[in-house]
Structure formats: C-alpha cells, structure tokens
Specification:
The chain is mainly alpha-helical and about 60 residues long. It has helices spanning about 10-15, 25-35, 45-55, and strands spanning about 5, 40. A two-stranded parallel sheet has the order 1-2. The longest helix is centred in the middle third of the chain and has 12 residues, at about 25-35. The radius of gyration is 12 Å and the shape is globular.
Length: about 60
C-alpha cells in the first residue's frame, strides 16, 4: 500500500499560497514529508478548481 498524500483543493491553496496558519502543524508536517518523499499529489479536479479561481482573479496563482 502506498503512503501517498492527496491534498484537497483548499489545503493545496493554503499550502502553496503560504497561508500555513490555516493548517495544523501535524498536517503541515505530513505535507512536507510527502513532498520530500515525492509522494504528494493533487487531483485533476483540484487543478480545474484552481483554474476557475484564477479566471475569477480569486487566487494568487497567476
């Protein structure tokens, strides 16, 4: 069984935009560990949702 971590859209946005205060320290540690182990993933629907946020200029992802 894989120990990959799949982020939901909100967690991905908060992590990527540096709003790490939104995430508990245990969650941040799990994300960092998965990222360093090349086991961090997001779903394709999250990519679409980010695209929609960017199109509406509601995200810093630009």
């Amino acid at each position: 069984m894989s120990d990959a971590l799949i982020l939901d859209t909100h967690a991905w946005v908060w992590y990527a935009e540096g709003s790490k205060g939104q995430l508990p320290s245990a969650v941040l540690a799990a994300i960092d560990q998965a990222r360093l182990g090349n086991r961090l993933h997001v779903s394709s629907i999250s990519v679409w949702e980010i695209g929609m946020l960017c199109a509406k200029e509601k995200s810093a992802f630009r």
